[in-house]
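Inputs:
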Amino acid sequence: HLATSLPLPSERNHLRPRIDLVVFMIDIKSKYSLKNVETSLAHVDASFFLGKVCFLVTGVGRVNACSIETNAICKLGKAYCSPVLFCELELEGIRVTTAQRLLRMLQICAGHIPGVSALSFVSLMRNSDDD
Amino acid sequence: ESVDTQQTAFLLRKAWTLYSVTPLYRFRRARLRNYALLLSASIAAEAQKGLAVEVGVEMGIKVALSSLAELRGSDLDQPALLVQLSSRPQASSRNSEGKLVWLGCFCSMFGDDLSENLPEGFTSLPLFLSHGAERYTSLVGSWFQKTFDCCFRRLAISPQNLSWMVAMWAGCELDKAASAVELIFSVPRLAQPLDISYAIHPEDAKALWDTVQKTPGEITQEEVDVFMDCLYAHFHRHFKIHLSAAKLVKVSTVVASAHCDGIVKILHSQYLPGVLMLLTELAISQIQ
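Outputs:
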């Protein structure tokens, strides 16, 4: 399910299936997308931040079109205890790999992988800068 | 920090295309005359190959290389290197000086980050400015790359860096009537490309920056973000358009103007060292 911002319209609440994973997409070329994500985060229930939220930063292939500081995004990830994935949608290989990663995360969040739960993401969260 | 304005006046009011250059290997200041002859021969040879369009002009290109000791930040910087290409005077012309057809300048303004850890034999002049026809830039560039084993890359300026520039330059002290602060945005993903030009009265821009900046002489990313957010919010209030979703491609102030393709124009001699210092920094981060 795709939405341009949160909250989701309440009219369809009863038709909506259970939400297992929320992926916030930030386009590094658009400062507006970061602001949008920040305001949308306020509408997410706290229980989701136990591994069921992740940030996907797109457009990182074009270093020269960068409008957002990567530091600001990493700080956001730390503040919300959620992983930050970087990808470039214009490159097919990376697009496919990223989709596979997200699918894997979704399977775990939906409880389809025995022995691994969404809480594992929180404990595996380590920024390479921390090393 | 004062740079002799007479010597550097040539840098003002010209559109310069910027490149980052990796350190030059075995470059000797004493051999400038020699290098000029070699470069001249190289250009003439290219003309003979028939690659140039105006064959006659290329054969008559005179090259001059000179050092500009005044153009540098500190003594740790290498003096700037100026390359001038002029057409040989026609036999019938009374003027003994040829006409300047192309200008190139290698410089380093407080480029210690790159120069301090250089191995022996390397000269650091990371910022290259060129003015004139692209084919000459390419001829001169290839010769330098071949002779000094260096690498030229067009200097791209990201929207983030352009935001820094407009915030910094809009906040500069102005002594006389200034031109408007202008930001040009390009809107992505449309059938017809759309450019939005946002012009702000320079006094309003300076007043806004003064309320945002906490410590004079220091600028933080947060302050630049607040400044830009105010401009975006103001625009949205009037036009219901989110400029933050568009791409900032050019900024223009009374101090200087800069385009994301790496083209700048420096307009104010007082701020020339500051602008060159920022550009040197960008060039160095592109190299590293």
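Remarks. The mean pLDDT of chain B is 88. Chain B touches chain A through 17 residues (CB under 8 Å).
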